[in-house]
Structure formats: structure tokens, C-alpha cells
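Below is the record:
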Amino acid sequence: MKKDKVFGPFDWFLIIGIIASSIVYSIANNEIDIIGTIVSITGIICVVLGAKGYLSNYIFGLINVALYAYINFQSKLWGTAALNGLYYLPMEFIGFFSWRKRLQEGSDNLVAPRFLTNKARIWISLATVALIAVCGWILSKFGDPKPYQDSASAMLCVVAMLLMVKAYSEQWLLWNISNAIYLIMWISLFIHGEPHSGMMVLMWVFYLINSIRGQILWNKMARDFADKQ
């Protein structure tokens, strides 16, 4: 088995950046947000590894989604709490074993990315729009103040996670959109003084930076892998 170099300079920039931001945030607020810090650090390591196609991202992802579900439950964000606890959590296990079957030849950690066909892209796009519309309509009937925003963020993540488990590069466009939506949501909660919200704003900033990079890296890896076939 060849040994893959896991972290590069930009990866360390993101990881050290979130740690440094956590320290600065704790000093500025005269308190240590232990749970928020753990969520932020495990989260950024998870998405950095995921952006580079490493199977080990699921180990950190398991810790991250469990604690993030707890934070959202505390903030009474029931939809996001359920999404993380009831969907992302089991998908961490499914994704781990699915990626193990698609590791690149000679590697014990690096997945082999691929592209969707044009036909699949059209069908998935239509299905995603339909899911957002239906879920938004349902949420509006339950009095959700922002039904279609909440629906869009949730359904984009659901579809993106499915594409991630199957190692499709197109997942990253959906992650970019959903990360931007969640960043806006946590900025709003930070303004209203929700606990852990400061650390969550920092986390989603780094998530968005990483997902943009992930799209670039996965597109290149998928093209390179396709050329070898």
C-alpha cells in the first residue's frame, strides 16, 4: 500500500485557522465553549479530509455530527438537529463502508471520485427542486417562518450526502450552496445571542472555503481517474 500525504499547507491553514479562531473567540467572550470548539475542530478536519477524498473523514464526521445535533437541539433548531442526528449520523457509517469499496488501487485511504452522467444530473436536479418545493410547502403548513429557506438547506444536504456516499464530484456544488445558507442562518442566531453561535459562524466560514476548494479538487481527481480507465 502506498502512503498518501494527508495534509498540505492549505489544509493546515484551515485547521490551525479554526483552532486559532476558537482561542480568540474564547478570550474575547471570557469563556471556553468546549462543545462548540470540538464540533468546529472535528468538523473542519472532516471536511478537509473529505475534500481530498480520504476515507478517514468519516471518523471525524461521526463525532462532529453527533455533537452538532446536540447543539442544534439546544438552540431549538429541530429540523437541523433531526437532519444531523437521524440522517447524517447513520450515513457516516454507510459512507465509510461504501468508500472502502471504491478506494483507488494501491491506496488504503483515498477514494476514486467520479462524475454523474448528464442524464443523472438532470434527474437529480429536478428531484432536488421537487423535494425543496414539497418540503417547503409542508413546513409552511406547520408555521415555519422561513419554510423554503429551511427546506432548501435541508434537502440540498440530503442529496449532497447521498452523492458523497457514492463518491460523485457534483456533491460539492450542493455543499457550497447549503454551506452559504447555514452560514447566514448562524450569523442571524449569533446576532440574537444563541449559545455556541459564535463558534458555529466561524465553523461555517471555514466549511464554505473548504467546499469551494473541494469542488476544484474533486473535479480534477474525477477527470484524472476517468482518464486512467
Q: What stands out?
A: The CA atoms of residues 9 and 15 lie 10 Å apart. The mean pLDDT is 88. The radius of gyration is 18 Å. The longest helix spans residues 197-228.
